[in-house]
Amino acid sequence: MRVVLSTYGSRGDVEPMAALALRLKDLGAEVRVCAPPDEEFSTRLAEAGVDLVPVGQSVRALVSGPPPAPADLPKRAAALVGQFHAAVLGAAGPGGAVVATGLFPAVAGAQAAAERLGARFVCVALQPTMLPSPHHRPFEYPMFPYPAEVTDLRELWKLNIGTMNALFGAAVNTHRAAVGLSEPDNVRDHVLTGRPWLATDPLLDPWPGPGGAEDGAGDEAWPEVVQTGAWILPDERPLPADLSAFLAAGEAPVYVGFGSMPLRDAPDAARAAVEAVRAQGRRVLLGRGWARLAEVDGAADCFVVDEVNQQALFPQVAAVVHHGGAGTTTTAARAGTPQVLVPQMVDQPYWASRVAELGIGVAHSSGRTPTAGSLAIALHLALTPRTRERAAALAAGIRTDGAERAAKLLLG
User: Fold this and answer.
1) What digits encode the pLDDT tens for the residues 245-254?
2) What domains, with CATH codes, occur in the chain?
3) Residue 174 main-chain phi, psi, to 5 deg
4) What does the H/E/C string look like for 136-166?
5) Measured at the alpha carbon of residue 346, what is the angle toward residues 198 and 260, in degrees to the nearest 5?
6) CA-based angle 110:210:13, to the nearest 5?
7) How far apart are CA 195 and CA 114, in angstroms?
8) How much is the pTM?
9) How far apart are CA 359 and CA 142, in angstroms?
10) What CA–CA distance (Å, rounded) separates 346 from 324?
11) CB atoms < 10 A from the CB of 258, how many?
12) Which range, of 23-37, 222-236, 251-265, averages the lowest pLDDT?
């Protein structure tokens, strides 16, 4: 069976697809992954034995450049729909399956290709805020804020349909009409389908689903969400020798890294992080990432590392300070290491709130760019014995079989 996995996003979108691809190959499927052309993505896929079908512009170049003007969004959306439709159409086949996640227009393009081929289509969410539910608010696009007076979740999700149509309806339906497909009035629900998958850990992110009439189940068609567990790519790479030497040279350091977030004020963020960690009497390990965090004074208590095996690293640090991506949050939780989340966008505020609610870390609540003072307060709380004990206790409950379960569900 041929399976095409499709995504357009950062490493947090691509690596779960690599994890699923690996499990699908173990079960005998022929797998291709359509994803952005960034070299780091192709490298991770190659390590899993999966070829990349490059689609669209480099994500790193896109997010590191000037923010796009609102007037450019329709053109960008239309381009993604067309690019992913063409790529998936060329990579998939009749009787196979297409699994898509990432930016909405890319998912819509992949779905259109699956429809034309008669292939099975599965829409996957790597975080819950994109899926309609009577239990949480929809994600809010800055250019389409919801009225402050509307607080009913059912009403907000109805407004969300209009938001998604306004943002993506023309791009999606113009393309669908051009290739001979129907034009749905509600592009959100058409693309999500009535049975989307949620690839998150049920302990970190329990999906309650619609309940009885009190949740609106009687007058709202909520999707039937299938939660598989997080798709975790096993990482057996050893840590670099110089990093291992730094770890062995003293007490466990605090890791600070913002992954695929470029951070417009990165030099100030690095300086603030170093000062905040030192205020706790700890050494500092900076993850360079797309923010390009760098040493601030060359002192021996600070070490900078590039892309590294976080599964091996996080159990050896005292705390993890990060942006709040789903993958980093799950990896730190598996390690039993306290976290400080400094959310930047999209689902990251949600993960910050979950970590705080679970007591396994702290949500930085003083804006997207931490100061030495605000980060020191959060770190002080994260490094308490209570938080460490709670993080260690919860770690054993994190599932590691999500990708395997998803692969069996897809091929079963």
Assistant:
1) 999 999 999 9
2) 2-233 (3.40.50.2000), 241-395 (3.40.50.2000)
3) -65, -45
4) CCCCCCCCCCCCCCCCCHHHHHHHHHHHHHH
5) 95
6) 30
7) 16
8) 0.93
9) 30
10) 10
11) 28
12) 251-265
Would you list the DSSP string of 230-282? -------PPPPHHHHHHHHTSSPPEEEE-TT---TTHHHHHHHHHHHHHTTT-
Per the document, the length of the chain is 412
**Within 13 A of 84's CA, how many CA atoms are on the CB side?**
35
- The whole-number pLDDT of residue 114 equals 98
Hunting for tokens 């599965």 — which residue is that? 122
pLDDT at residue 220 in the model: 61
Name the 3-class secondary structure at 15.
helix
Model confidence at 405: pLDDT above 50: yes
Cβ proximity of 212 and 277 under 8 Å: no
* Interval 167-212: pLDDT, tens: 999 999 999 999 999 999 999 999 999 999 999 999 999 998 764 3
Give every strand in the sheet of 120-125, ordered side by side: 52-54, 30-35, 2-8, 97-102, 120-125, 197-198, 226-227
- 289-301: per-residue pLDDT in tens? 888 898 889 899 9
Instruction: Yes or no: say if 140 and 146 are a contact pair by the CB < 8 Å rule.
Output: yes
Backbone torsion region of residue 196, taken as left when φ is above 0, otherwise alpha when ψ lies between -120 and 50, otherwise beta: beta
* Averaged pLDDT, 218-237: 88
Q: Which residues of 228-252 are buried (b: 16+ CB within 10 A; e: fewer)?
A: bbbbbbeeeeebeeebeebbeeeee
Task: Please tell me the distance from the alpha carbon of residue 353 to that of residue 362, in angstroms, as a whole number.
Answer: 8
* Residue among 364, 316, 307, 357 nearest 336 (CA): 316
